[in-house]
Amino acid sequence: MNKGELIKVAANKAGFTVKQTTEVYEALLETVTEALKNGEKVQIVGLGTIEVKEVAAKTGINPKTKEAVEIPACKKPVMKFGKAYKDLFN
Questions:
Q1: Rounded CA gap, 83 and 85, in Å?
Q2: pTM for the whole thing?
Q3: How far apart are CA 71 and CA 59, in angstroms?
Q4: How far is CA 64 from the centre of its chain?
Q5: Residue 90 — very low, low, confident or very high, per pLDDT cuts 50/70/90?
Q6: How many Å apart are CA 64 and CA 51, to the nearest integer?
Q7: Which has the closest alpha carbon to 68: 79, 76, 57?
Q8: H-helix or E-strand spanning residue 23
Q9: Is 23 in contact with 42 (CB distance < 8 Å)?
Q10: pLDDT tens column, 10-66
């Protein structure tokens, strides 16, 4: 399911127009992104938690040349699904 399909299905389920649902979707993404950039965790009850994790620098290997390559430290967003949500699939 892509963004457009998700918005159409959500609009039909909620009884909103596709335009209204698109605006809510974009506002939600923008709000989550701003919170993560500010160092906050975002908890969505019934789904899980999104947060930014620090990844330490490490040495990797270029598969083409087999040379060691330094991979710099970085930050990355991580989604951890809640137990109740994971249990829906088992």
A1: 5
A2: 0.79
A3: 6
A4: 31
A5: confident
A6: 33
A7: 57
A8: helix 18-37
A9: no
A10: 999 999 999 999 999 999 999 999 999 999 999 999 999 999 999 999 999 999 999
